[in-house]
Write a sequence for this structure.
């Protein structure tokens, strides 16, 4: 059996030996052209003149292209409102204005300097509050409402009113945005892109070049990281190279530098969520009214769906009887913010976890007590939008981790420790994830797969999933190998290509393995159905030579009658067997197709956006974590002393890869809530645009003690092999580091801890100063 085993990542050896091929590892062709961009020098205003005459005189410059050279003027993942190139109006700093074609890569910065972009600057809008003041919105969501919130708030024992504020986050994938476009005969182009969404890249390139879709093929071998940053924003990057390739008739390569990539691409959305919460003296939340507000940046991108995902996850792991959840996405003159691991879910979930910490401080109770009394239980398992939390593992996860982590005794020790005045305070917090798995846009919950068997018994499988390091190809290979009872070494998952898998959804929403794995399994089962019938004839000693003049009919055979195991095909009742490879050969000589295509759509989904109720998710991935931190009161430095994760991933397809995803997601989230702060100057130039100025976690920032345990759960019948998605849900658990910091700060001064995220050293010192002086 391959499914459920710790099979090694299919690229592991190639990564270690340096033989993995990324976009910029593709061999240069003799005629290849290098592509760069020139950027707007203001955040908002008009372009009066673009003078690139000097650039054209550079000996290496092969061409300069502006907005009028692109067939389509705008693109967008949902709304086509984003300019390919700014022509008259600039809407964010470093917005692309010109495409540069150069004979050498090294000359691009010099050519950039020779392009003069004359502008008239206007006052920009750079915050949610500024956008609110002029009511400039990108999207306003349909509220989720349940119960009588206003009345219950008035009647509640206690009320708290506040705002949860969190900043953005740079994706910081190792491979920057990159593409190579090859012009082909008959006007066709072949696009190799570092993209999570080949079908969208195909579409956007085709529209930019004025081509029908069938003349564009997009191929993705792998990405050097994505995290959502290549879901939509890889498409225009490929289009820039496509414009040059089409015009010059030469291959065109665009590889953004890390600095340029960070300057022009969108980040995780900053949020500012304003709320009033009512609760009783036990800490039970009686009502919550919250207005979720996001900074969408200059253009729509995926902001509307991200806002709604935040609204779906404002409840976190907690039942809210009376709720009024509204949401607005505001337009600013920041770079257009985009998808990021969690897709708004963390910004929603973090709000309720922060509220719970505040309730605990207000009542003088342990935050675990507040979480326990509010969590989803057997009699309260309906979300604010009307979906039942089936297979609810949260009570068990909370209680088991509480005991396993020795939470009670550690809390007592922390209370005693913090009575001492030694310049260090400690905090502890348990938080949870209940992450909905599916695209909230119903039509995206579909995929297709093509599986081809070869005469030596090996398999090539193609799906719409894209590999960005998360191991989706390995899991799909395991599913195929398991289906036919062969070694995973006999399965190759091919590069994702729009000519083999059409109209695919992005590899996002944590559903890459779910959708594409299910499609691959269905394709395998179609082939197996025919092979079982053929094997039955063979085992019954059917004389195939007698059927030369007439095609024979394959009998229907149940799956449990003939099984595929260890490279053999076995009739269970008679114990007759034959080699899998021999059955393949027999099928070929009898003209039986050894290829299978299948389309899969996630069943049972149905959410009514107009009413704000329904079932947007197939199921929920759940987990809990306890994190303990120490905070230096003189420097604000945070050390994560201990993080203990207990996770429900159903029956994991690959436990080793899944544990890697859990730990990686946690550390990435920990960076978001502590050190990863985006800094801008007065003109809105991004200052923190390189590894020297933007601090992602390093090995010394990870928890000193770090444990991950997956529980056994065999009841997730609605997904392939009873597995659960793992990409985004554990990201939410990193929030526990921030709530533990809030807990630590609560020991100094009085009242609610007003801590923004990220809790940088400076932010912590400011809050400590306020609390001591206040």
């Amino acid at each position: 059996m391959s499914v459920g085993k710790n099979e090694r990542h299919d690229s592991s050896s190639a990564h270690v030996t340096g033989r993995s091929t990324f976009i910029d590892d593709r061999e240069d062709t003799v005629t290849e052209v290098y592509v760069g961009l020139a950027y707007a020098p203001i955040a908002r205003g008009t372009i009066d003149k673009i003078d690139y005459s000097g650039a054209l005189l550079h000996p290496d410059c092969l061409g300069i292209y502006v907005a009028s050279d692109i067939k389509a003027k705008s693109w967008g993942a949902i709304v086509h409102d984003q300019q390919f190139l700014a022509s008259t109006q600039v809407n964010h700093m470093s917005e692309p204005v010109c495409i540069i074609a150069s004979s050498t890569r090294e000359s691009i910065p010099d050519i950039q300097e020779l392009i003069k972009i004359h502008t008239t600057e206007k006052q920009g809008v750079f915050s949610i509050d500024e956008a609110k003041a002029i009511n400039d919105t990108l999207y306003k969501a349909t509220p989720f409402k349940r119960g009588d919130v206003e009345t219950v708030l008035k009647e509640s024992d206690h009320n708290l009113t506040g705002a949860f504020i969190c900043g953005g986050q740079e994706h910081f994938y190792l491979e920057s945005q990159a593409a190579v476009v090859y012009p082909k005969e008959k006007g066709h182009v072949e696009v190799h892109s570092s993209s999570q969404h080949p079908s969208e890249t195909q579409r956007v390139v085709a529209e930019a070049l004025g081509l029908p879709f069938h003349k564009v093929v997009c191929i993705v071998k792998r990405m050097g990281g994505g995290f959502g940053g290549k879901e939509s924003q890889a498409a225009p990057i490929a289009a820039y190279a496509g414009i040059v390739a089409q015009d010059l008739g030469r291959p065109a390569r665009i590889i953004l530098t890390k600095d340029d990539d960070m300057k022009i691409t969108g980040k995780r959305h900053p949020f500012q969520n304003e709320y009033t919460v009512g609760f009783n003296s036990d800490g039970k939340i009686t009502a919550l009214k919250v207005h979720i507000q996001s900074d969408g940046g200059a253009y729509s991108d995926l902001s509307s769906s991200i806002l709604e995902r935040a609204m779906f996850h404002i409840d976190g792991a907690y039942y809210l009887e009376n709720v009024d959840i509204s949401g607005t996405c505001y337009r600013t003159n920041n770079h257009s913010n985009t998808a990021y691991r969690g897709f708004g879910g963390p910004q929603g979930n973090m709000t309720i976890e922060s509220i719970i910490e505040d309730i605990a401080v207000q009542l003088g109770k342990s935050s675990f007590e507040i979480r326990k009394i509010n969590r989803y239980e057997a009699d309260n398992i309906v979300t604010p939008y009307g979906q039942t939390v089936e297979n609810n593992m949260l009570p068990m996860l909370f209680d088991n981790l509480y005991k396993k982590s020795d939470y009670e005794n550690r809390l007592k020790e922390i209370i005693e420790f913090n009575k001492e005045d030694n310049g260090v305070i400690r905090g502890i917090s348990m938080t949870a994830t209940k992450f909905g798995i599916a695209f909230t846009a119903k039509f995206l919950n579909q995929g297709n797969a093509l599986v081809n068997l070869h005469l030596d018994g090996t398999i090539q499988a193609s799906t719409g999933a894209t590999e960005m390091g998360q191991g989706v190809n390995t899991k799909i290979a395991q599913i195929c190998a398991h289906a036919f009872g062969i070694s995973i070494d006999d399965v190759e998952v091919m590069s994702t290509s729009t000519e083999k898998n059409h109209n695919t959804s992005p590899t996002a929403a944590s559903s890459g393995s779910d959708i594409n794995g299910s499609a691959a399994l269905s394709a395998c089962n179609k082939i197996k159905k025919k092979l079982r019938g053929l094997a039955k004839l063979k085992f019954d000693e059917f004389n195939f030579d007698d059927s030369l003049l007439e095609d024979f009919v394959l009998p229907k055979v149940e799956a449990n009658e003939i099984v595929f195991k260890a490279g053999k095909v076995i009739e269970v009742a008679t114990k007759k067997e034959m080699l899998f490879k021999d059955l393949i050969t027999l099928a070929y000589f009898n003209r039986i197709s050894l290829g299978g295509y299948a389309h899969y759509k996630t069943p049972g989904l149905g959410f009514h956006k107009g009413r704000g109720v329904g079932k947007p998710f197939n199921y929920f991935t759940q987990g809990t974590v306890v994190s303990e931190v120490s905070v230096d009161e003189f420097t604000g430095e945070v050390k994560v002393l201990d993080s203990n994760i207990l996770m429900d991933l159903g029956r994991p397809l690959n436990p080793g890869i899944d544990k890697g995803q859990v730990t990686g997601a946690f550390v990435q989230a920990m960076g978001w809530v502590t050190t990863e702060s985006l800094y801008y100057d007065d003109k809105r130039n991004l200052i923190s645009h390189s590894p020297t100025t933007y601090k992602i976690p390093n090995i010394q920032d990870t928890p000193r003690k770090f444990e991950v345990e997956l529980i056994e759960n065999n009841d997730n019948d609605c997904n392939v092999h009873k597995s659960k998605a793992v990409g985004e849900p554990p990201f939410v658990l990193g929030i526990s580091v921030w709530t533990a910091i809030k807990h630590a700060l609560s020991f100094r001064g009085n009242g609610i801890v007003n801590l923004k995220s990220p809790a940088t050293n400076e932010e912590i010192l400011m809050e400590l100063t306020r609390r001591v002086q206040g």
